[in-house]
Design goal:
The protein is of the alpha/beta class and about 240 residues long. The protein has 2 domains: about 170 residues, P-loop containing nucleotide triphosphate hydrolases (Rossmann fold, 3-Layer(aba) Sandwich), CATH 3.40.50.300; about 70 residues, no CATH class. Helix content is about 35%, strand content about 25%. Helix 3 packs across helix 4. The radius of gyration is 18 Å and the shape is globular. The structure holds adenosine-5'-triphosphate. The site of adenosine-5'-triphosphate has 12 residues, from strand 2 and helix 1. It holds the Pfam family ABC_tran. GO terms for molecular function: ATP binding; ATP hydrolysis activity.
Length: about 240
């Protein structure tokens, strides 16, 4: 259930967003770390077939996304930076609509989302209109939604950005639990260094290049740094400035 990314290049007109990017994401919780503009969303767009591949390829468990995008998309759960919920529908209506798109009956959707929404403290808001929820609660609905079709892969693009501390903690803890309990391959993209734990597999992207990859603790020791913050600064800033 790994995701293998081979020699990806991506250009927007004459702006290079990704340069010869290769890595393998194994089952579990993987962190893609990079500053604004590093190329994280571009990579997510390629992983979800939102943009055509220009060079390189991506295989999900051996299957090329360019050849069978629809088959891969059925196995993908995605949370983008911008909400894609219908604000005028209730939480339940949004979730059953998504379920219907995947051929899943409302009763089954309810069975699947009840434990997730309960864990995320949102079950009592099930019949509220999404417009009435704050940003953190909307993001929790999106987390519940991306699990309805029981995907094998979960891709989250800065899922906690702009949220209050409690929402951030709740969401990341929930996703980490999923990685532990279910055999899913999860890619968590962020520029928030405090979201990284020492045993996380870490992929650091800067100016479109993967400048480091490996277990966080191994990278700390390899580069003789004491914290993720120091490591990140060491790797991303010209040494003269450190
Ligand atoms: N539609 C576009 N047209 C032109 N350039 C783009 C476009 N989208 C992104 N870029 C550029 O490509 C580079 C990578 O952008 P991308 O959005 O993938 O980075 P990111 O790491 O996701 O940043 P952020 O954390 O701000 O979302 C940046 O230099 C950005 O300005």
């Amino acid at each position: 259930m790994s995701i293998v990314i081979n020699n990806i290049d991506f250009m927007y007109r004459n702006k290079r967003a990704l340069a010869d990017l290769s890595c393998t994401l194994a089952p579990g919780f993987n962190v893609l770390l990079g500053p604004n503009g590093a190329g994280k969303s571009t990579l997510l767009n390629l992983l979800t077939a939102q943009r055509p591949m220009q060079r390189g390829n991506i295989h999900f468990d051996g299957v090329d996304i360019q050849k069978t995008p629809r088959q891969i998309m059925q196995q993908l759960g995605v949370v983008f930076q911008q909400t894609t919920l219908d604000l005028d529908l209730s939480v339940f209506q949004n979730l059953t609509y998504f379920g219907a798109l995947h051929g899943i009956k409302a009763r089954v959707v309810l069975e699947r989302i009840t434990p997730v929404l309960t864990q995320l403290g949102l079950i009592e808001r099930l019949h509220d209109t999404v417009r009435d929820l704050n940003e953190g609660h909307r993001r929790r609905v999106e987390i519940a939604r991306c699990m309805i079709h029981q995907p094998r892969y979960l891709l989250l693009d800065e899922a906690t950005v702009g949220l209050d501390v409690d929402s951030r903690k709740l969401i990341i803890e929930h996703i980490r639990l999923l990685a532990q309990q279910q055999a899913m391959t999860i890619l968590w993209t962020t520029h928030l260094l405090d979201e990284v734990q020492e045993d996380d597999p870490l992929y650091i992207l800067n100016h479109g290049q993967l400048i480091a990859q490996g277990k966080c603790e191994a990278l700390l020791s390899e580069h003789q740094q004491d914290s993720v913050f120091d490591l990140y600064r060491w790797l991303t800033q010209p040494q003269g400035l450190v």
